[in-house]
Structures are given as C-alpha cells and as structure tokens.
Amino acid sequence: MTAQVIPETVTPEAVQGAARMLEVRVRRGEVFQTFAVARRPNQTVLDVVTEIQREQDPTLAYRFACRVGMCGSCGMTVNGRPRWTCRTRVAEAATGDALVLEPLRNLPVVKDLAVDMEPFFEKWRRAHGYFEPGEAPPEDFAPVRPDEPERRKADAGIECINCGVCYAACDVVAWNPDYLGPAALNRAWTLVNDVRDRGQEARLAAVAGDAGCHSCHSHMSCTEHCPKALSPTFAIAGLKRETGRAALRRLWRKA
User: Fold this and answer.
1) Residue ranges of the 4Fe-4S ferredoxin-type domain (predicted)?
2) Per-residue pLDDT for 171 more than 70?
3) Helical H runs in the chain?
C-alpha cells in the first residue's frame, strides 16, 4: 500500500520570512532613513511608500491623489530619476533589491518627499501661461478646425498635467533658478498657437527674456523624462523661432 504524502502546512509567517525584501532608502531632510518592505508582484513605488507610511512610520510625508497617472501629484526622484511613482513599478526602477527615494529636484522641500509647487506655478504666471481673450471677446465660441496647422502644433503639448517632472529633470533650472522651465514654456507655446488668444505680444515678450526660451540648451532632459511623452524641447524651439520673428516685426515697424 502506497503511503499518502501529507504536504507541510505553510504558515503566513513562513511565507513572510521567505519573501524577498526591498531595501528602501528615503531622504528625510539631510539624511536617509532605511526601511525594509516585502517585494510583491506588480508592486509600484507608490505602493512601497504607502506601505511604509501606513505600517512603519506614519510621520513620513509624501503626496498623491489619483493613483492612476492622471493628477501627476505623486512625482518623486526614484534612484536618481524623476518619475510618477504611481505608474512606476518596482521591477522597473529598483537596482537589484534597492530603492532610493528623494523629493523632486529644483523645488523647495516641504517635508520628506513632498515639495512646494508654488515656484513652478509662479513661472507659469510669468510666462503668461493663461488664455487671454482680449478686451472684447466674441460672444459665441470661435471655431477651431482640428486640421489647422496651429491647432496641430498646440496638440503636441496640450496634454501637460503640471506634474513638475520635466522641471525637476531640467539642468538649466538647476543652474539658473530664474529660468522659466520647460512646463511653463510648453504652455506658452500652446497658447501662441491658439488663434483665439489676444495676448501674444506680451506673452512672446515674457518668454524672450534672459530667463526665457533662449536659455534652453536643448539637452532634452525634459523630453526624455516626461511621463506623458510630450516634447517641451520642441515647444521651446518653436518659441525661439516666434520670438525671433516678433523681434523682426518690431524692427520693421520702427523702420
């Protein structure tokens, strides 16, 4: 008679003990604090941070909202690269079983992994990144055909959701804190191509200064890191052309 083999009972504690662990180093001010988190299938970096905050250290500060890549608020520097943590899987970003998490660069730190976005949005204001209808806007909607060249140019950058990842990746912002940055200039470019806008002259003057589009060195860090696959570098190149044309128009008017 063949003996029946009874499988061993696997306890939750045994499973936990056998799990691969992830070493997570989190910048907290001037120092790093290390946490250990179990690796799990399809685990995102935001999952890791949330687990640390909920189960190990409730004082850890970070920011998130939608968790599905729509709000852009969960941006952090992950192993040296600015990313959306909700759409970044640990398997993609970790070096072996190690993660290093820091706040986004080029922005003041509020606490731990949360940064102050006010300077980012202030540069939008300085770049005139808002629609200007003019003193007497039309009463009805202005028709804009999808196949118009200007509309196509605007389409290339209109999906920006202001996450700040490109701003954190920008070398020029790191060198020159006054630089308007790729997101604000990308927004200005979409409005330059809005045929309904009546604030073009002031907008082009705003982005043509020392801290504007001509300070871009075209390193393309913003384009490389944009989670939406936009290309602020090309938008900035467009602004360089348009500000040059605006300068020529001013010269012709004076002649």
Assistant:
1) 150-180
2) yes
3) 12-18, 45-55, 90-93, 118-126, 149-155, 165-169, 171-175, 182-192, 200-207, 221-225, 232-254
Residues 211 and 140: beta-carbon distance below 8 Å? no
Cβ-proximal residues to 97 (8 Å cutoff; 6+ apart), any chain: 20, 21, 22, 23, 39
Here the tokens at position 241 are 């052309």
Please give the Cα distance from 113 to 103 (Å, whole number): 4
Residues with Cβ < 8 Å from 103, sequence gap 6 or more? 27, 76, 77, 109, 112, 113, 114, 115
Domains 19-115 and 118-254 are alike in CATH topology: no
Separation of alpha carbons 32 and 152, rounded Å: 46
Token pair for residue 23?
């070493």
**pLDDT mean across residues, the chain:** 90
The residue with tokens 């992830």 is: 22
Burial profile 22-33: b = 16 or more Cβ within 10 angstroms, e = fewer: bebbbbbeeeee
Distance of alpha carbon 223 from alpha carbon 233, whole angstroms: 6
The count of residues in the chain is: 255
Confidence of residue 26 (pLDDT cuts 50, 70, 90): very high
Domain at 118-254, CATH class: mainly alpha
pLDDT at 1 > cutoff 60:
no
With the CA atoms of 119, 125, 127 and 131 taken in that order, what torsion angle do they form, in degrees rounded to the nearest 10? 150
Which token pair is 217? 């060195």
User: Model-level pTM?
Assistant: 0.87
- Distance, in Å, from the CA atom of 192 to the CA atom of 201, rounded to the nearest integer, reads 9
User: CATH classification of 19-115 is 3.40.50.10540, yes or no?
Assistant: no
